[in-house]
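Curious: why these numbers?
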Amino acid sequence: MQNNNAKQVQLSHGGGGKEMNRLIKEIFFNAFDNPILRSEEDAAVLHFDGNLAFTTDSFTVAPLFFAGGDIGKLSIAGTVNDLAMMGAEPQYLSCSFIIEEGFAIDSLKTIVNSMALELKKSSARIVCGDTKVVPKGCADGVFINTSGVGRILHTGISVKNLQLGDKIIVSRDVGRHGAAILMAREGLALESELTSDCATLWPIVEQLIAANIDIHAMRDATRGGLSAVLNEWASASEVGIEVIEDAVPVCDAVKGLCELYGFEPFDLANEGTFILAVPNASVEATLEIMQRFCHCEQAVVIGQVTDTRQGKVVLQTPWGSQRYLDVPQGELLPRIC
């Protein structure tokens, strides 16, 4: 008779004994293998040179698997992207799992292998981690926390560094991640094959830095989407931002979902889309690089920094009118990352 417990995470997997050791060695060490992790010390011994960026994030997305990714890919891309948006080369990550008793071992392996695959898209390595198993009903499958540190290669990138005349560039179409999660959660079947934009952004950022692009501000448009980022920039830099609504790329599937549910595509989360503020003189070079690399074929100027309506984002509509693009309010989609 087959032992079903062997296919599921048990409380003993978090107890510090043989079961936990086997889980860590056979799944985590096998996927994330590197000399620092293999040393099995209480803390990783690291070497740094120069200024560092340090970030942390927790991931609780529901569902765990969605079109274009899963919680594992999301956890790596999300933390690596936070470093990249500060002009930092991702180097070292920590990773902690909170796993619910009864979670399928095969699903855990799929998530971990997805993380290992995403790590290969940057120079980052997982060098330490932790595993906790909680009783059934105390978590929703699995939660992941990742922290990351990276060496800053481009200084001066800041929410407070937008300057008059800067052009605002978006790397690709917006709202994909939030829409993909909504589709998965509601079981919607559309004619289009909508997928999340979940992706590691370091490769394209590395190209921009190597080309000495003068980046004033840069941010991945995650929770709160494009609206949240632009409003944060306008407030922090005490400037106005004008956006041309028709210039913002939105795919038809996202438009359709927004019309169906009454959402604003600019408010929906992204996980592989970023926004830059660069001086006008750098726009042509920036777009030329972005459109050649890493899913940024749609990169386009969507607006500019102005000295009017400081702290506000103004949307120029297709009908010649204007309206404020406000910070999103309320919980549009719970647990999208």
The chain has a mean pLDDT of 94. The CA atoms of residues 61 and 337 lie 4 Å apart. The longest strand covers residues 88-100. The chain has nine helices and 13 strands.
